[in-house]
């Protein structure tokens, strides 16, 4: 295989991946917990961009439950974003598993 051709393909794939990462920043995932009592929105860069808490979910005598609901919603959002990122990057890399790429 021609080394120049291989390098050019690698550069093209890198450019596509950079573009995809920029596009992922604008994509969001919304998840809820506690039947909608907690809603979180996470972007493609795995940043929590919105958190909404239904006032009825706030019970001063049961702060632990509220904490658990927030953790559950945030963790689910992060998991879904990672799945989305893996799927989108798989399209760019043609399904190649390249450790450390994303």
Folded structure, characterized:
The chain has 102 residues and is α+β, with helices and mostly antiparallel strands. The chain has a domain at 27-93: 2-Layer Sandwich (Ybab, Chain: A). It is 54% helix and 18% strand. The chain contains two helices and three strands; from the N terminus they run H-E-E-E-H. A three-stranded antiparallel β-sheet has the order 1-2-3. A hairpin with a 4-residue loop joins strand 2 and strand 3 (48-53). Helix 1 (3-26) packs antiparallel against helix 2 (63-93). The longest helix is centred in the C-terminal third of the chain and has 31 residues, at 63-93. The mean pLDDT is 87.
Give a quick precis of the structure.
With 102 residues, this protein is α+β, with helices and mostly antiparallel strands. It has helices spanning 3-26, 63-93; strands spanning 28-33, 38-43, 48-53. A hairpin with a 4-residue loop joins strand 2 and strand 3 (48-53).
